[in-house]
Amino acid sequence: REGRAGPQPGGRSPGAAAPGAALLLAAGSLVLMALLPIFFGALRSVSCAKSKNSSEMPETITSRDAARFPIVASCTLLGLYLFFKIFSQEYINLLLSMYFFVLGILALSHTISPMMNRFFPANFPNKQYQLLFTQGSGESKEEIVNYEFDTKDLVCLALSSVVGVWYLLRKHWIANNLFGLAFSLNGVELLHLNNVSTGCILLGGLFIYDVFWVFGTNVMVTVAKSFEAPIKLVFPQDLLEKGLDADNFAMLGLGDIVIPGIFIALLLRFDISLKKNTHTYFYTSFVAYIFGLGLTIFIMHIFKHAQPALLYLVPACIGFPLLVALAKGEVTEMFSYESSAEILPHTPRLTHFPTVSGSPASLADSMQQKLSCPRRRRQQSPSAM
């Protein structure tokens, strides 16, 4: 939620513009990295919504949650700003690094698990394990964590741990981006808006939040640049000059990916509910996101100032699909659609894309995180982002 100041020009002064090719490479890379978790997270949200067990449902955002979200985000952002002003930035970032080290490993493991399953041979010795924590005894015994996993999950966890150690020791921008992409994909997949009206409330509130904290104060930009955690995607503007050791970064906050992304994922589920074998609203909103993000970057380089990306993304992501609905006469259907916990068997399914399976990411439950929607978890998942 924090540090979502939109694409930023990095460490150069306004008059010291990077070469055109380097700027184009940085901007194009940020746009591409933003599109990947939205596209695949939306597809995986369809699979997650098909769960029939209420304890395995993703987190659903209601209109009340959407209305409170900007207030809670503002308080959190201001709190972080004051922490950085009062306490030593070094110690705060050390604590945050350890926290995101654990969460990043779990999120990345959950992200790569469906893809990695394709690389295991058929004769792979896959053993089953169970992690069980209970509270109380006898009839009053209550399950706190009941998680089943297998050897393949452990392999994914080990690979993710390598990235985690790399990030912890070097804070390298590639490791940061791997974690950032994993967080974004998990957020788009697992945070579900219950209807389009709720999405409009959420995006509208955060539109005001973003504009105020970027243009009205220096709080957003200060937190984004001080926060050494994978809450943003970065790409060096001096990559062509310094290679992988580049240090002049453009950045994009994860909130500018996840917030529009969950609205785009909702429109994909709405497309599927229409049973017309088309994804008109999904592709329209996806193109709208590209347009809005491109406009953000363009304005940023004209004025040489960090831009609130939601200032451009919100009107595009809401306006484009609404115009399509008006043209097709489906406005009533769009606003009356309720995101269901189940997709009917005869509904077209995107079976050629990877689906979510149980993975070590669900261990984040013990830290009150909702980074996964595993098929075998029994307890209620807490909130993720």
From TrEMBL:
<keyword id="KW-0378">Hydrolase</keyword>
<keyword id="KW-1133">Transmembrane helix</keyword>
<dbReference type="InterPro" id="IPR042524">
    <property type="entry name" value="Presenilin_C"/>
</dbReference>
<dbReference type="GO" id="GO:0033619">
    <property type="term" value="P:membrane protein proteolysis"/>
</dbReference>
<feature type="transmembrane region" description="Helical">
    <location>
        <begin position="309"/>
        <end position="327"/>
    </location>
</feature>
<keyword id="KW-0472">Membrane</keyword>
<feature type="transmembrane region" description="Helical">
    <location>
        <begin position="66"/>
        <end position="84"/>
    </location>
</feature>
<feature type="transmembrane region" description="Helical">
    <location>
        <begin position="21"/>
        <end position="46"/>
    </location>
</feature>
<dbReference type="GO" id="GO:0042500">
    <property type="term" value="F:aspartic endopeptidase activity, intramembrane cleaving"/>
</dbReference>
<keyword id="KW-0256">Endoplasmic reticulum</keyword>
<dbReference type="GO" id="GO:0098553">
    <property type="term" value="C:lumenal side of endoplasmic reticulum membrane"/>
</dbReference>
<feature type="transmembrane region" description="Helical">
    <location>
        <begin position="280"/>
        <end position="303"/>
    </location>
</feature>
<dbReference type="InterPro" id="IPR007369">
    <property type="entry name" value="Peptidase_A22B_SPP"/>
</dbReference>
<protein>
    <submittedName>
        <fullName>HM13 protein</fullName>
    </submittedName>
</protein>
<feature type="transmembrane region" description="Helical">
    <location>
        <begin position="91"/>
        <end position="112"/>
    </location>
</feature>
<feature type="transmembrane region" description="Helical">
    <location>
        <begin position="249"/>
        <end position="268"/>
    </location>
</feature>
<keyword id="KW-0812">Transmembrane</keyword>
<feature type="transmembrane region" description="Helical">
    <location>
        <begin position="190"/>
        <end position="215"/>
    </location>
</feature>
<dbReference type="GO" id="GO:0006465">
    <property type="term" value="P:signal peptide processing"/>
</dbReference>
<dbReference type="InterPro" id="IPR006639">
    <property type="entry name" value="Preselin/SPP"/>
</dbReference>
<dbReference type="Pfam" id="PF04258">
    <property type="entry name" value="Peptidase_A22B"/>
</dbReference>
<dbReference type="GO" id="GO:0098554">
    <property type="term" value="C:cytoplasmic side of endoplasmic reticulum membrane"/>
</dbReference>
<comment type="similarity">
    <text>Belongs to the peptidase A22B family.</text>
</comment>
